[in-house]
Amino acid sequence: ETGVTQTPRHLVMGMTNKKSLKCEQHLGHNAMYWYKQSAKKPLELMFVYNFKEQTENNSVPSRFSPECPNSSHLFLHLHTLQPEDSALYLCASSQDSLFTRGVYNEQFFGPGTRLTVL
Amino acid sequence: LAKTTQPISMDSYEGQEVNITCSHNNIATNDYITWYQQFPSQGPRFIIQGYKTKVTNEVASLFIPADRKSSTLSLPRVSLSDTAVYYCLVGDDYGQNFVFGPGTRLSVLP
């Protein structure tokens, strides 16, 4: 138990569906992240939020839309996805952005949502 | 961005010491080196982090040579539960350029 929860744990959706992934952290952290992990590929950073403000978007297609209403919650809204978007989507949080004044802020990861797009 | 390369997989036996090396030839002055462990269907978990020389904690040791172009994660006396994927991660002081390597799949055999 890392203090970061994700729901749902598994999701199957069609290409025309709209769904949302939810992440919640109970650690009092200020930074939250979305990662994508495809089979046999490295973890890919998608979005970074720091104090509810998006600070990074790694050229993610617009069919993925993040939302961070407060420092404890992070959503990933999905619409018109493609089969190649099937992957494990991981949420993480850290006290502040990864390095603050030379101090490394460890990331804590949630268990992930296994997404399958049909 | 510093790109990392690791062996795709390694096998070991219980009780042995395992050393996993990560190459990061283009590491920048501000980059730190961090290792994560990931079990199937779980998110990665932090193991150890260092900048140079040697770092040791209750789980592992991290060896970084003077030129910092590589690093070696050392797991003493592994057990079956250490079977996982180990990621070498290199990131800079500004926190945004954190790039996960391809990972090394360690299999510990009885």
End-to-end gap of chain A:
31 Å
Number of strands of chain A: 13
N- to C-terminal separation of chain B?
39 Å
Which regions of chain A have little confidence, pLDDT < 50, spanning 5+ residues? Answer: none
Please tell me the overall pLDDT of chain A.
89
Query: How would you describe the shape of chain A?
Result: globular
Low-confidence blocks of residues of chain B: none
**How would you classify the quaternary structure?**
heterodimer
| Average pLDDT over all residues of chain B | 88
Structure description:
The complex is a heterodimer of chains A (118) and B (110). Chain A is 0% helix and 58% strand. With 118 residues, chain A is mostly beta strands. In chain A, strands 2, 4, 5, 6, 9, 12 and 13 form a 7-stranded mixed beta sheet that branches. A 4-stranded antiparallel beta sheet of chain A has the order 1-3-8-7, with no helix packed on it. A two-stranded antiparallel sheet of chain A has the order 10-11. Chain A is globular and about 45 Å long. Chain B has 110 residues and is an all-beta fold. Chain B contains no helices and 10 strands. In chain B, strands 1, 3, 4, 8, 9 and 10 form a 6-stranded mixed beta sheet that branches. In chain B, strands 2-7-6-5 form a 4-stranded antiparallel beta sheet, with no helix packed on it. In chain B, a hairpin with a 7-residue loop joins strand 8 (84-91) and strand 9. The relative contact order of chain B is 0.34.
